[in-house]
Amino acid sequence: MALTDELKTLNNAFSGLGVDEKSLISILGNSHPEERKCFRKGTPHLFKEDERLFERWNDDRVRLLKHEFMRFKNAVVLWAMHPWERDARLVKEALKKGPEVYGVIVEIACTRSSEELLGARKAYHSLFDHSIEEDVAYHIDGPEKKLLVALVSAYRYEGAKVKDDTAKSEAQTLSHAIKNADKTNPIEDDEVIRILSTRSKAHLREVYKHYKEISGQNIDEDLDVALRLKETVQCLCTPQTYFSKVLELALRNDVDKNTKKGLTRVIVTRADTDMKEIKEDYENQYGVSLSNKIEETANGNYKDFLLTLVART
Amino acid sequence: MATLVSPPNFSANEDAEALRISVEGWGTNEKAIISILGHRNAGQRKEIRAAYEQLYQEDLIKRLESELSGDFERAVYRWILDPADRDAVLANVAIKKSHTDYNVIIEMSCVHSPEELLAVRRAYQLRYKHSLEEDLAAHTTGDMRKLLVALVTAYRYDGNEINAKLANSEADILHDAIKDKAFNHEEIFRILSTRSKTQLMATFNKYRDDQGISISKALLDEEANDFQKALHTAIRCLNDPKKYFEKVLRNAIKRLGTYEDALTRVIVTRAERDLRDIKEVYYKKNSVPLEQAVAKDTSGDYKAFLLTLLGKED
């Protein structure tokens, strides 16, 4: 293992998403103590020279490694789960983690069909002896609370019928609320919440179109400063673009662990629904196929599992 | 307990034929309609409608609508619909009134079980191509909108788990808000519209133990505005629906005119559920059986129909 090739492979085995189990088995498993010492000395980001003259594992890295080993297990468990239990658990986890991940609550409330969201609410009763809206209302403080409670409580009409003048006037209302953002935060504006949390998706897509005609920009572009609202609109009106963005971020090199979890979450939760459209959108936006990017960035069983899910459509 | 008396064995085809005869030709045999429909439960009524459609290629409901009139027609129309569909119609009527009849919405969302409320929301979408909350939100504003939409979109946990500590702290929160007359406090909305019914009962009981007065009495106020009244109604419906319905009936019978709506609504919507218990509460409070009060205050076919639903033997 003095060869740099094997050192490089081992390094790669431990970096990125998931771990390259095969290489670890064939290289590390076959290594002599001397070779392992070379490995430890050759990977300063994994091992530090201790004052008592031995190379010790970097504690933080070991913790991160645990997460990387678990990525495959988490993906499998999530995939095997009933979609209702899956969504209920994802919401509960997001509530526990805190404001940085409340976007997941928006994602689930807005990209699922009315019946799927209902199912998640039922599963939540069984799993946690509370209703989703109860816990969301209790644990979330601050301006986004009203919107999030309303979004998880919605049971939207799923048909295609839309009243054009209502859509037009509601686009006006939204435009007005965004222009007056300095007076009232649009995320707390009752009309904004009403429109986004009660109208059907078909209706909201018309509103999206009319908004562009009125203000020249897409509404989510105008909402750059109000992240939750932006996510809400994107999830409701352009979900595939939203998902491909989550994937693109998750596949970057130096992002935080919550962002990385987006990869498993999106692929597992969308593989049976709109994965095909998400793949197309991803390739159009970022110029590389999703499978190729996953091949580059992920390792081992985790990588193979994701590629299998992605290749189903 | 229900007051409806329906036979365990029945023939949908025979009933459909009998109803056909009662609407054919000049005039209508209202007695026959009351005697049949007034003694059929929801499942049976559904079968009768299907049988009638198959036999005569006509919608029984539309036919009855055209043959009957007045309070009697309104009562029969509401009665013959599926329970969830009926509530969807009642909700739509309540919303579209120039001054939204919030009591109907509150009743529906607070008295129903979570699954029943869900069924109403589905039926509403099927019938009106909008979600219930969509229409409700578009026709109301401010605090009233917040309260009604929150109540209607709730899908409460319906288990028996109670958190006593939470009941204590939330009873205190409610007390503080009521004391400061901050009726539109965020916490009031949150507690009333998201907590499970059993949890709310525990909270209301704790409130009564601490304050010596029930929370609904604490909200009683001559000068209450609409929103405060709505809050009061919601709490009464959540706390003790039978007592609430008795009050609605008592008020409906005392006054004449526009209150047939409420009288019809309570009798038609509760006849297959808990109208018998409501009758007992009524008798205790008024020393007069409900049937007697209804008979005194109504007349004709409408009266006969209501009394049949109340369990009167033919």
Automatic annotation (TrEMBL), chain A:
* Superkingdom of source: Eukaryota
Q: Which residues belong to the signal peptide in this entry?
A: none
Q: Name one GO cellular component term.
A: cytoplasm
Q: Which GO terms describe its biological process?
A: response to cold; response to heat; response to salt stress; response to water deprivation
Cross-referenced InterPro entries, in alphabetical order? Annexin, Annexin_repeat, Annexin_sf
Q: Name one Pfam family in it.
A: Annexin
UniProt keywords, alphabetically:
Annexin, Calcium, Calcium/phospholipid-binding, Metal-binding, Repeat
What GO MF terms are annotated? calcium ion binding; calcium-dependent phospholipid binding; phosphatidylserine binding
Residues spanning the membrane: none
Cross-referenced PANTHER family, in alphabetical order?
A: ANNEXIN, ANNEXIN D4
How is this protein named in the record?
Putative annexin
Automatic annotation (TrEMBL), chain B:
User: What keywords are assigned to this protein?
Assistant: Annexin, Calcium, Calcium/phospholipid-binding, Metal-binding, Repeat
GO annotation, cellular component aspect: cytoplasm; plasma membrane
A molecular function annotated in GO for this UniProt entry is: phosphatidylserine binding
What's one GO BP annotation on this UniProt entry? response to water deprivation
Q: One Pfam match, by short name?
A: Annexin
Chain positions recorded as Ca(2+) 2 binding sites? 253, 255, 257, 297
Listed binding positions for Ca(2+) 1 are 25, 27, 67
Is 4Fe-4S tagged as a keyword? no
Which residues take part in binding Ca(2+) 3?
Answer: 295, 298
Q: What is known of its domains?
A: A pair of annexin repeats may form one binding site for calcium and phospholipid.
> Which family does the record claim for this protein?
Belongs to the annexin family.
> What name goes with this protein?
Annexin
Lineage per the UniProt record: Eukaryota, Viridiplantae, Streptophyta, Embryophyta, Tracheophyta
